[in-house]
Design brief:
Elements lengths: L2 E9 L2 E8 L2 E8 L4 E6 L4 E7 L1 E8 L5 E7 L2 E5 L3 E7 L3 E7 L6 E2 L1 H11 L1
Antiparallel strand pairs: 1-2, 2-3, 3-10, 4-9, 4-11, 5-8, 5-10, 6-7, 6-9
């Protein structure tokens, strides 16, 4: 098995490299200082490996509406459970690797997604 480069995407927030390794999906994600990524939730668990930088991490459980906010500095790991809306805002330029066991699918969470889109305009 080998790591396969699938595609690249870029916008004001930075770049994303989309990779696969067998059944796993691995994204290398850049967030430039002041920008946010996420604003959605998945019906599967994901893991984010913070490789460099510092982020404010917000997570809201869609079942209980309980929210947590914390500052995460590299190196660190964020384990995001299924059905948890999440938002990553770069305090410093940040790079992380995102790992998931299936193809990407997400449902937007308007409260968080609004933050993502407002900072891009």
């Amino acid at each position: 098995m080998e790591l396969i480069y699938e595609k690249e995407s870029a916008d004001a927030r930075g770049k994303i490299l989309f990779l696969s390794y067998g059944q796993k999906r691995i994204n290398i994600v850049e967030i430039k200082k002041g920008f946010s990524r996420g604003g959605h939730y998945h019906d599967f668990d994901t893991v984010h490996y913070i490789l460099s930088g510092t982020i404010e991490y917000r997570e809201k459980d869609m079942m209980t509406a309980k929210e947590q906010v914390r500052t995460v500095t590299a190196p660190d790991i964020i384990r995001i459970p299924a059905m948890a809306a999440h938002l990553l805002t770069a305090i410093d330029d940040t790079i992380f690797a995102e790992e998931m066991s299936q193809n990407y699918a997400a449902t937007e969470y308007p409260e968080y997604r609004k933050i993502v889109t407002e900072k891009m305009t």
